[in-house]
Amino acid sequence: MIKKYILGEPIDTESVVQNIEVSPGIPKEIAEVSECTFCIEMPEDARVYGLGETVRGINKRGWRYISNCTDDPIHTESKNSLYAAHNFILIWNKKKTVGYYIDTPEKTEFDIGYTDPDRLFIRLNSPNAYIYEITPDLTDNKSKACESDNPLTKVVRQFRYLIGQSYIPPLFAFGYGQSRWGYKSREDIYSVIKEYEEADIPLDSVYLDIDYMDSFKDFTINEDAYPDFEDFVESIRKKNIHLIPIIDAGVKIEDGYDVYEEGIKGDHFCKKEDGTNFVAAVWPGRVHFPDFFKPATREWFGEKYSFLLDKGIDGFWNDMNEPAIFYSEDGLREAFEKIRSFEGQNLDINSFFEFAGAVEAVKNSPKDYESFYHEYKGKKIRHDKLHNLYGYMMTRAAGEAFEKLCPDKRILMFSRASYIGMHRYGGVWTGDNQSWWSHLLLNIRQLPGLNMCGFLYSGADTGGFGADCTEDLLLRWLAVSIFTPLFRNHSAMGTRQQELYRFPHKDWMRGIIRLRYSLIPYLYSEFMRAALYDDMFIKPLSFVYMDDERACDTEDQLFVGESIMIAPVYTQNVSGRTVYLPEPMKMLRFEGDILTEEIEMPAGDHYIPVSLKEVVIFLRHGHVLPLVKPANTTAELDQSDVTYICNNASEDSYVMAFP
Ligand code: GLC
C-alpha cells in the first residue's frame, strides 16, 4: 500500500509515475522534531536498506548519508555524498516492513543511527517534500513472477510500481566493454580492438572518452585524430563492436561553435540572477550549462545526439552532470584576490591553510550552486533547490530524443549523476572509483541499493578508475563484474593501463570473460524479468532468507537473478573464502567457461578455495542455470544451443524471457 503526504510546497520532480491520493499530515511513524527535521524510531533489531549509490554497507545503519550529487572521486567510508541522490529507505524488523521515499530535489540528510543509534533523522534543506510511505501490498499480482515474495521484496516492488519501469538496454550492452581516459586517436582504438582479437578475448564495445571531441566540445569530432569518423564507426561495427562516446554537461563558449551559438539563440542556458548566462568551467574551459529543466532545451539538446546517431553510434555515457564545476568565473576572481592578499605575509598555521585551501575551494563550490537559475514549470528556481535533478534531466533529454529519433531501437545510455526517475531513461555507473580492494567490496555492496531504486542497469569501473590496478585485483574484479549488467573496464589517464591483454595471465582473464558470454542468456533474461515485474536483478541474501539472521548479516554474497548466488573473493593474497549457504545448494566451479566441479553442498559455512582463474557459482535448489557457448561478441552468441545445469529441477522449469 502506498500513501502520499505533502510537506509545504514541494517541487514536482517527475520521478513518480502513479497518481496517488494525498493523505493529510505526515505518516504517524514519523515525528516532526522541527520544521525540517523528522525522526523515526528504529527498534534495535531493525535493518535499514536503500539509498542507492552510497558508501558503506548494504544495511545503512550507523552513518550519515547526504543526498547531494557530488563529483568526488575519493569514495572512502568517511564521505557522505557520492554522485547520486536516491532517497528511498526501507526499514525492516520482524514486526514491520516499511519504505519511505522522500521526494525532494534539494540536499537531504539521512542520519541513520549516527547521532542516536536508535533513531533515524531525516533533515531537509527546506520544509518541502513529498513523502511516500510504502507497506507490503498483499494483493500484488506481479509477485507470482517473483520467487522471493516477502514483505521486503513486496515493498520494493510497490516502490518500483510507483516510479515506473526501469530502462532496458540493448543486448550488446551486456557484452564486455573496454574504456580508458587516454585513447587519443583512431589508431589507439584500432590497436585496442586488434589486441583483443589477437588475445581472443570477447569484446562488444570500446568507449570514447573526451579526446574524441574537438577541444572537448559536445557533438563535435576531433578530425585530426579521428578522420572519416563515419567510416571508422562502420569499420568497427563490421566486427560487431560498438563505439560508445561520452557526452558532457557543459557546452563550450566559443564563437562559431554551432551548439554554443544555437544555445544562445534559443535561450537554452542557465542564467545568473541578473539574467546573464552563468559561466562555469569544465574540460574545455569556460562553458554554459544547458537548462535541461525546460522541455524546449531538452528537445534541442536531445536532438543533438543525432549528430552521432547518424554516424552509426548506438550508445552514450553522460558525464559531469552533477554538474561538476571546476570553477565559476566569479569564484575564480575571488580566489585570485584572496591569494594575492596573502602576498608578502608571514603565513602561520591558519593563514597557510587558508591560502592553500583557496584554490581547492573554487571546485564544486556550494556558493556557485546557489548562483544560477533554472526555468522549471514556468518558474525561475535557484539551482540548489533543484540540484539533484540535473543529471536526471540531462539523461531524460537524451532518452526523450531517442524515443523520437529511433523508436524501434534500444540505445545504450548511462549516466554518472542520477536521481530516482532517471532509471526510466538510462542506467548508471558508479563514477570514479579507485583500484582498491576496498572498492571492489564497495562495488558489491552498492548493487542491491541501486537495484531497489530502479537502477538495474548499473556497474562500476572494473579494475578501478583511479590508481594502479594489479593483475590479481583485476581478476577478482572481473569475477564480480561478469554478473553486473554494465560490464566495463575503465581507467584514468596516468594510471597503469589495464586492458586485459596487457597482463601475463590474460588467458585466465579470457576464460572469465568467456564465462560472462555463456551466462548472457541467463543474465539478460533475469534482467528482463526484474525490469518487467519491478523486481531486483541483484538482491542481498536478506531479501531471500528474511528469517535467517545469519543470511541477513551477510553483506558479501549476492543473489543474481533468482537462481544463482555469488560469493566473490575481495581480499588480496587469499586462496578462497568462507561462504554461508542458508540452504543446500549446488556449487558450480568454473575455470574460465569450463565447468570443472559440480557438487551439492549442505547448508552452513564452507571454506571454498577459489583460485584467481576460477569463478564459483551457487545454484539454488529447484533451479536451472542455462549456459550457451561463448562467442567473441553478443551478436555471435548462439542462443539456441543451451546447456542446462540443474539442481533438483528439470530443464523445462526454466523459461527464458528474450524480448
Ligand atoms: C570523469 C568521469 C571519467 C572520465 C573523465 C574524463 O572523471 O567520471 O569516467 O574518464 O571524467 O572524461
Strand order of the largest sheet: 25-24-22-18-14-13-12-27-26
Strand content: 15-25%
Distance between the termini: 30 Å
Structural class: alpha+beta
Strand elements, count: 37
List low-confidence stretches. Answer: none
* Number of separate helices: 14
What ligand species are in this complex? alpha-D-glucopyranose
The gross shape turns out to be globular
Largest sheet: 9 strands, parallel
What is the residue-mean pLDDT, rounded to a whole number? Answer: 96
Query: Portion of residues in helices?
Result: 10-25%
Radius of gyration: 25 Å
Task: Characterise this structure.
The chain has 659 residues and is an alpha+beta fold. It has 14 helices and 37 strands. The strands form nine sheets. A nine-stranded parallel sheet has the order 25-24-22-18-14-13-12-27-26. The longest helix is centred in the C-terminal third of the chain and has 27 residues, at 506-532. The protein is globular. Bound molecules: alpha-D-glucopyranose. Alpha-D-glucopyranose binds at residues 181, 209-210, 246, 319, 416, 431-432, 490.
Which characteristics define this entry?
659 residues; alpha+beta; nine-stranded parallel beta sheet; six-stranded antiparallel beta sheet; 14 helices; 24% strand; globular; binds alpha-D-glucopyranose
Give the gist of this structure.
This protein has 14 helices and 37 strands. It is α+β, with helices and mostly antiparallel strands and 659 residues long.
Walk me through the topology.
Elements: E1 2-7, E2 30-32, E3 37-41, E4 47-50, E5 63-67, E6 84-85, E7 88-92, E8 97-103, E9 108-112, E10 119-124, E11 129-134, H1 151-163, E12 177-178, H2 186-199, E13 205-208, H3 229-237, E14 242-248, E15 251-252, H4 258-265, E16 280-282, E17 285-288, H5 295-304, H6 306-309, E18 315-319, E19 327-328, H7 329-341, H8 349-360, H9 366-369, E20 373-376, E21 379-382, H10 390-405, E22 412-415, E23 418-419, E24 427-429, H11 437-452, E25 458-459, E26 461-462, H12 471-481, E27 488-489, H13 506-532, E28 538-540, H14 549-553, E29 558-560, E30 564-566, E31 576-581, E32 585-591, E33 594-601, E34 604-609, E35 614-620, E36 623-628, E37 642-647
Parallel strand pairs: 6-23, 12-13, 12-27, 13-14, 14-18, 18-22, 22-24, 24-25, 26-27
Antiparallel strand pairs: 1-11, 2-3, 3-10, 4-7, 5-9, 7-8, 8-11, 9-10, 15-17, 16-17, 16-19, 20-21, 28-29, 29-30, 30-35, 31-34, 32-33, 32-35, 36-37
Alpha-D-glucopyranose (GLC) binds at residues 181, 209-210, 246, 319, 416, 431-432, 490.
